[in-house]
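Comment thread on ticket #2218

A.B. wrote:
> Attaching the input chain for the structure job we discussed in standup.
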Amino acid sequence: MATLHQEARTAWQELGFTPSRARGQNFLVHRRVIDTIVQLLDLGEDDRILEVGPGLGFVTRCLVGEGRNVWAVEVDPLLVRWLGDGPLGSCPGFHLVQGDVLTTDFDRLLPEDGVKVVANLPYSVAAPALLRLFEAGRHFSVLVVMLQKEVAHRLAAQPGTSAYGGLSVWCRLYGRITRKVAVSPEAFTPRPRVDSTLLRIELHREPMVAGDEVPLLRAVVRAGFSRRRKMLGNALAGLFEARAGAVFEQAGIDPRRRAETLELEEFTRLARAYGEVAGGKDGPGPEGSGGSAGVA
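C.D. wrote:
> Ran it. Output below, let me know if you need it in another format.
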């Protein structure tokens, strides 16, 4: 029986395909790691799955079965053709979408809730893709994501550490990491120059703050970490303006602290205090209310 590495090489030859380093196209060819992914998903017969970046479908083959519905979102047109023309294309529960995770309309594509996600996210898009999945979290119950080791470390980082940042805060807002599995470069072809980590993230039924509070929270987190070496009083001066003293006092936060020392609950107190002191001002302004990438 051919190895997955051999299957990948054969597929590339038939497609006239060369993996793109710019797109982070490193294909998982280690059967034990694939088995670990399926184990982390903890699938039931009726579970529905979103797969981001199916590549050549090696993980997908383990997911399509028992009548499960799998939505596979792949950006590369050659790989979409390979998946659609191959055996997976005839599986009734397999739904192939050519698209980008950053722009896919999950509301139109997926059921309302209860979908489990498996994703192999290259470094270049890992943070914005994760934030997109978090913000569409009402559809999802579990994320099993393959990330560069450093990105996974940022997600799991604790307050008071150098890796702790906006991505760490946002992970806590939407879910909690329950498993971490180290994956070596030898599990992929072409072999990447970095180590990877598998994370299982169990999403909260609802984010830890109400939806209408998210823009203010995003603005505060973004501003705090944009000048992370400065004390919060200085880092947030541009956002809070003349209200800074009143905001810190109402939140009960010492302005001499730095952003990396604050828990999610403390960022939330700052955002709420800002909203109250600002007296219902419409949001944090264009710079603070931008896209989700602002918290990465």
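A.B. wrote:
> Thanks. Noting for the ticket: The first strand starts at residue 27 and ends at 28.
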